[in-house]
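Quick one - inputs below.
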Amino acid sequence: MKPTNIFDPNYFHKVVDCQWACPAHTPVPEYIRLIAQGRYTEAYMLNWDSNVFPGILGRTCDRPCEPACRRVRTEEKPVAICRLKRVAADHKGDISAYLPRVPSRKNGKRIALLGAGPASLAVARDLLPLGYEVHLFEKDPAGGGMMRSQIPAFRLPADVLEEEVDLILNMGVECHFNQEITSMKEMLAMDFDAYFVGTGAPRGRDLNLPGRQEVDQHISIGIDWLSSVAFGHTNSIAGDVIVMGGGNTAMDCCRTSKRLGANSVTVVVRSAFEVMKASDWEKEDAMSEGIPIVNNRPPKEFVHENGKLKGVIFGCVKPVKGEDGRLRYEPSGEPDVFLKADRILMAIGQENHCPWIERDVGIQFDKWDCPILDETTLQSTHPKVFFGGDSAFGPENIIWASAHAHQAAISIHLFCQGQDLKADRPPEGVNLLSTKMGIHEWSYDSEHDPAVRYLVPHADKKQALGNIKIEVELGFDRRLGAKEAQRCLNCDVQTVFTDRLCIECDACVDICPMDCISFTDNGEEDELRQRLTAPALTTEQDLYVSGPLATGRVMVKDEDVCLHCGLCAERCPTNAWDMQRSVVHLPQLGSYAG
Amino acid sequence: MTFVAKPRARHPLLPLNELNLTRRDYEGAVSTLCAGCGHDSVSAAIVQACAELSLPPHRFAKLSGIGCSSKTPSYFLDKSHGFNSVHGRMPSVATGANLANRALYCIGVSGDGDSASIGLGQFAHIVRRRINMLYIVDNNGTYGLTKGQFSATNDRGSTSKRGVPNLYEPIDLASMALQIGASFVGRSFSGDKRQLAPLIKAGLMHPGMAFLDVISPCVAFNNHNGSTKSFQYVREHSGKLMEADYIPQSAEINADYEPGSAEDLLMPDGSTLRLRKVDANYDVHDRIGALAHVQRCQDEGEVLTGLLYVDPDAADCHDILETVETPLNALTEEDLCPGSRELARLNDSFR
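Output:
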């Protein structure tokens, strides 16, 4: 293998698994260290800079970072990254001094943001400090989009939502609320310099089964129903409720129903429990509130009498693992089951829907009704129009919306300045900074903490189920937060090897607790992986290969299970190993952190 | 030294041996020696050897004297017995331990100061008494603990860190061991665990005095250009007799080598030590020949490594003294004190 180029910004970025897995690439270990130091405000701002909604995401994020956490591979459960983000948000001080200044003199360019969800808000935040005049159009009476309409208050309290939404709106966004956009043609006629479409995936899927038309008034689409609860139009639900679907919307629907007075609530899912789309913790929370989840039951028919819903007939299937490892469903042979129901909430997915974009304005759509976009620039086939969030590539989540927004904002800026959207895009970079402070002192806490993941305290269940506004999770307090922060392995403090300093004394090989380091003859990667101190079988994780050493051998380090404990560097007599903090620089407009 | 304890976390694929232990279960405390010390590699090789042999850690007696080398028994096999004795007096304590309990695996770790200077007399006598043990000398040619004076094994002409040459002839402990009765003599290098670990395994399984002289560079005081015991010098002047493979009893033994180029030694536990020879004419059973070859290489400045000599059938101290099979510390009062009638019978036999 060739020597590893550690100056490639992606190389060490990949070693920071959490940051690499995060769509917005939030520097997780850095803010966890700040939390450990009690510097909540700085930790919050580092997050705000990268993902725009730390308080909201600290409660609602899909957490792609946590399954990626190195601790999953070295022992058991990941660091509670998401809940630590909330610790920063809950305990931060006054942030006003850290916020970017918005110039009073504008740069003369006007930008329209369609929809007031996370994607549009994040674009506004990135563009405003550069002097853009930003107009926001929204059909609802307030900003926040799906964060307001679809996430119930017991998961995301209104004051947390409003704090972070208003922070952006108060930077000088021209808001046009209660203004539903019905025609893209009209929008384009207003002659803004660029348009950003962040209208989400607003259409909930329906199920056309026998009896569907007859019982229409007893069936609601999940996201629409949650929205009417959020805006106070609905404040009760009666009788026996069946929630159909296995995603996070289904979990929100069932838990909301329980709080609004349903006699009974049952979630019925067509597929197996393990493959449900809902996050594990959402399923756990629903079940701990006493809501049964019934799996492997595809619906067949709505049963009604005199126009009144009686219940639903479900078939019974069993999952069978196919040769490709995917689950298939076969009839289980059990008889169909009838479940009594007075109301049905349909939460079986949502999709993009832009009927208001006329198909002759120059914006082309693919066969799934998604706009055709450049994946890097998020520019549509109409040069002035950019997309982001769920409206770009279909339903994702808030953190993806932030990630899209940063890219779209760069594109809009380049477009408005007459630059090339690709060639002039700012490059990525990486800085490496030694953490050595003394002979055996590092500027990070290198010691490995074997503690298991700390549990987040919950509100009293009886109280929580009685009031939709009572937040279920209470979050870590400062003490628990500091303890959980210690579990982070500081994967951004990298083991950097300088081959010309190495005397091949083997001290690092002997001390490494995870058998990551080998000195061996070079070879092809597949073969080399087999004959290291411990075989490196996780091929997604890179091997760090040095140049040839005095004996002709090379140093090979398996990045997979390294604890970043720094013992290799402590035991190295020549400083051939050093622990260096890697800071990945990803281009972003109006960045507070640089 | 480091202040941080080595994390207990281990590689998820670390193999279990026959006792369901991993290599990590054979480790000791984190070393307090200088970073990069060769002695730590020797400790790591001992850990590797004991784990791969699936020997129970609590059946070991670790013995040492004084010096950097003699600190190392703290850094391996922390679940075993140990005695850190007086300077140069490890052989006396080891002799006592082995006589009292012949069922324990004895590992003595000493240094060039401990064995070639203050303890040279003790060294000579434990070797000629053929105590059944593995005697390792971590040989760095310098007194590291007292800031780098020449030790008795330092080669004539080799310089100190400040460039002053050594004026005296070196003591070669391996040659001495060959001369006075060791039945297993090897030399290796801390920077070559591939050779060292199999030799430690074979030494542990050898029934009798097994002596290993391990060149183990002192990174603080004797790893410079003028030194003949630096990593660089040993690597450049290593005359390797052979590569050693240790093949456990359970593994299949294949004979995929040229006739004469390798030799299989059957160990008492049924395992095999395969010596893949660099020089096909070298005979590891020829004590006089070995002695001559070692001396010749020494004169030519070459560091000969590998198994120099072995006599698998040689008697050990217990054989010579015709002691009972039961470890002496396990004998009961009746065994040791058979009563007045037996004493009378014994006395009668002398009349």
